[in-house]
């Protein structure tokens, strides 16, 4: 969608189109590898937090899961070679960060949350870095993706505090408690709001203002829910609300096809 609605006016040759599809494919491979290695290291924790979603050790053996991860990661890097050094470097960085996240970063306060949010934003920013370095809107969406995913990751830690604590994880809610973690969420929500206004204040269009109003409404609802949340079910609903906000942001790219 970012390619169609935000980079639509670039004079793409058939070769660039083919390369763009390859970029999407390698990104999917690395993301799939990330999910696999994350579940590989999380089997014990997931048996407590999400027992119905455990598949490694049941559907597929741990050895085969690890081999599949290595194959997807390697293919994601090698297939990016025709795209240039930027794509290769970004894919290698993503593979490394996903491994370290799954094997240890996610059990440390904040750094695991930051890595997930950073990688999500990098997927969007990569399009601008390779195809449209001066496209302000793509970077805006990358920043939006970073903050909303960082907020959601911290909320998920609050939701999963029981299982994480049982297995020795040192997440923000475990170290500092729910109240102080909420204060951090308030700060991040303020930063999200300021960053969106920073990117949008020079863009004058009624459709963009409409999107801003929708985003602000969802932002306010999320804030109210965070203030009231104090149990696992509440944090589960907050995580779902973040998904809706992410979906609204994704669909909103259609508003930016101006002219």
What would you note in describing this structure?
The longest helix has 29 residues. This protein is an all-alpha fold and 259 residues long. Helix 2 packs antiparallel against helix 4 and helix 9 packs antiparallel against helix 10. The protein has one domain. The mean pLDDT is 80. The protein starts with a helix and ends in an 8-residue tail after the last helix. The protein has eleven helices and no strands. The radius of gyration is 19 Å and the shape is flat.
List the helices and strands and how they pair.
Layout: H1 2-6, H2 14-41, H3 43-49, H4 62-78, H5 85-103, H6 111-131, H7 136-159, H8 161-166, H9 172-200, H10 206-228, H11 232-251
Helix pairs in contact: 2-4, 2-5, 4-5, 5-6, 6-7, 7-9, 7-11, 9-10, 10-11
Can you give me a brief rundown of this structure?
With 259 residues, the chain is mostly helical.
């Amino acid at each position: 969608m970012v390619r169609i609605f935000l980079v639509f006016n670039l004079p793409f040759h058939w070769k660039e189109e083919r390369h763009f599809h390859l970029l999407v494919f390698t990104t999917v491979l690395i993301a799939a590898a990330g999910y696999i290695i994350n579940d590989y290291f999380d089997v014990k924790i997931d048996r407590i937090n999400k027992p119905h979603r455990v598949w490694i050790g049941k559907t597929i053996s741990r050895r085969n899961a690890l081999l599949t991860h290595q194959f997807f990661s390697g293919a994601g890097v090698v297939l990016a070679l025709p795209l240039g050094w930027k794509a290769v470097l970004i894919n290698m960085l993503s593979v490394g960060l996903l491994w370290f996240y799954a094997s240890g970063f996610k059990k440390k306060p904040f750094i695991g949350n930051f890595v997930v949010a950073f990688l999500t934003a990098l997927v969007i920013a990569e399009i601008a870095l390779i195809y449209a370095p001066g496209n302000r809107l793509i970077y805006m969406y990358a920043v939006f993706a970073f903050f909303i995913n960082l907020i959601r990751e911290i909320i998920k830690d609050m939701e999963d505090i029981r299982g994480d604590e049982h297995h020795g994880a040192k997440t923000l809610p475990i170290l500092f408690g729910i109240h102080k973690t909420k204060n951090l969420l308030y700060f991040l929500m303020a930063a999200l709001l300021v960053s969106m206004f920073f990117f949008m204040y020079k863009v004058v269009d009624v459709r963009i203002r409409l999107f801003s109003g929708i985003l602000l409404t969802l932002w306010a609802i999320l804030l109210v829910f965070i203030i009231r949340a104090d149990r696992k079910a509440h944090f589960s609903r907050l995580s779902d609300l973040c998904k809706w906000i992410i979906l609204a942001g994704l669909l909103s790219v259609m508003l930016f096809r101006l002219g």
